[in-house]
Design brief:
Length: 373
């Protein structure tokens, strides 16, 4: 072989080595020159062909990112906030009640109200929908009507409100994360067409959702559309109840068991049915929400309107607890309307002077902080 042929062969071998792709794997020898991801150009258009992954955890849209090593401050005063709605017997919010007519009791001890505000405020709502083959199979033809009626609640939300959609059967699935874009919620609810598992784990679903929302600031709530029957949850009723008390997220259950029985022919199970409804009522009462049990589809728009009224128009009360012990105990809260001159229950009347029956919607208590060594 001539020198020219040997040189040509060497060049070909060198080109072959260069063209072979490097093996994938971690680069153990990282030098000073490291390529950083380039910021997207304004002219670059995202690839819409790949859908965004469903988040495994609801994001806290109000939580700011703290820099590493940021100082932490210890606060000794326990400030308790209570959102209160005063509703008449028709589900309408009663406005313009003076601050002096509100009395807050913590473990039957009167508290000094430090701040008092009233008015509309943006809210963060998570719609938790039961979608189990155990119940949807009885009225699959009517399930579409239920979802259509549920769209009505989304229409009561304002552009600055945030909403997420979660469905549950054997497990909890986040269909859409918190967003002010209501179209994402519509699209998420349209996915509920063919039920999967035949279990209905309402205790797990509520506890997981409330725990994820506990860190979100401002007005927030869970709107639950479910039968209320639990079949396979890891949590017991008592543990779920305690978890919801600790989270402090108001729950507004809409029990659909009556409608399933009327329209779908689901056999009522006596004690099981009563137990499910009582559990939903307890969850609502203790967290500061309201429970509804419609029999007909025509009742749903009025229910969604009442929920929106209760959530949006609230009296925001704050007080410094007279019990400063950081023992992690559960403390009961009771909000009353009184006449300060006589200390008797406040009498509310309409424009014609007729008395109005009203109810006070507020959380039943909170968990005191625990001292951290």
């Amino acid at each position: 072989m001539s020198i020219a042929q040997k040189a040509s062969l060497f060049v070909l071998m060198l080109l072959a080595v260069v063209s072979v792709p490097a093996q994938e794997g971690p680069n153990k020898d990282v030098g000073e020159t490291v390529a950083k991801p380039r910021k997207p150009d304004a002219t670059t258009t995202p690839d819409d062909s790949t859908p965004a992954p469903i988040p495994s955890k609801l994001s806290n849209r109000n939580k700011a990112d703290l820099p590493p090593g940021a100082p932490a401050f210890k606060v000794d005063t326990s400030v308790v906030t209570v959102d209160v709605a005063v509703i008449d017997n028709k589900g309408h919010f009663i406005p313009n009640i003076p601050r002096g007519n509100f009395r807050v009791l913590e473990d039957n001890v009167p508290q000094q109200i430090s701040t008092f505000t009233m008015g509309e405020a943006p809210m963060t709502v998570c719609m938790v929908i039961e979608f189990s083959a155990r119940f949807q199979q009885y009225w699959s033809s009517k399930w579409y009507e239920t979802l259509t009626a549920s769209y009505g609640f989304l229409q009561t939300l304002k552009p600055e409100d945030y909403v997420a959609v979660i469905a549950y059967d054997l497990k909890t699935t986040i269909l859409s994360d918190f967003s002010s874009d209501k179209r994402k919620a519509y699209e998420a609810m349209q996915m509920l067409r063919i039920p999967g598992f035949s279990e209905s784990n309402v205790f797990d679903a509520l506890s997981e959702t409330a725990d994820r929302m506990s860190g979100i600031e401002g007005r927030k709530a869970i709107v639950l559309i479910a039968t209320g029957i639990d079949t396979f949850s890891k949590l017991t009723y008592d543990k779920a109840r305690k978890s919801l008390q600790d989270s402090g997220v108001p729950i507004y259950p809409i029990g659909i068991l009556e409608m399933v029985g009327i329209y779908g022919g689901l056999p009522r199970e006596g004690i099981t049915t009563m137990q499910a409804e009582n559990e939903l009522k307890t969850f609502a009462k203790e967290t500061g929400g309201m429970a509804f049990f419609p029999r007909f589809f025509g009742e749903l728009p009025q229910i969604y309107g009442a929920i929106s009224q209760s959530l949006r128009n609230q009296y925001a009360i704050a007080y410094s607890s007279s019990n400063q012990a950081k023992d992690g105990s559960y403390r009961k809260i009771k909000v009353e309307l009184v006449n300060p001159a006589t200390n008797e229950p406040l009498r509310v009347t309409d424009e014609k002077g007729k008395p109005i029956k009203y109810s006070i919607v507020a959380k039943a208590g909170y968990k005191a902080p625990r001292e951290v060594e």
